[in-house]
User: Which sequence fits this backbone?
């Protein structure tokens, strides 16, 4: 994955399905994770090719035309990359500016704010 590569909504749906398949899966396994109406086989195949070209997915050939696809990074690794890119692009790399924006724009409840304070306190104790 290149630093600038992000997933479209449709690509994210495919990756979400793959992340739920611990040993990877074939196109039919991925489709099974979609709600009705399910996407066409060829649609998922196309997205898998795109994801492979972007470096998010690889595959192993099983037998005949059957391939097992698997993610090349975890959801947590992808999330960390996206958050870092947003922080760097929009907040000059400042974590405090990023958190401030989030807190101000999300209209957090008092409970959510207290939970964030507790997370920050616990994080500082673990360092």
Assistant:
């Amino acid at each position: 994955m290149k630093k600038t590569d992000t997933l479209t909504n449709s690509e994210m749906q495919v990756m979400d399905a793959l992340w739920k398949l611990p040993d990877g899966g074939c196109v039919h396994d991925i489709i099974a994770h979609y709600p009705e109406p399910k996407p066409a086989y060829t649609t998922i195949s196309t997205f898998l090719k795109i994801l492979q070209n972007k470096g998010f997915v690889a595959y192993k050939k099983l037998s005949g035309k059957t391939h097992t696809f698997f993610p090349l990074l975890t959801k947590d690794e992808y999330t960390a990359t996206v958050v870092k890119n947003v922080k760097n692009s929009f907040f000059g790399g400042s974590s405090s500016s990023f958190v401030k924006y989030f807190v101000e724009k999300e209209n957090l409840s008092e409970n959510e704010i207290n939970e964030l304070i507790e997370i920050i306190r616990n994080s500082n104790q673990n360092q």
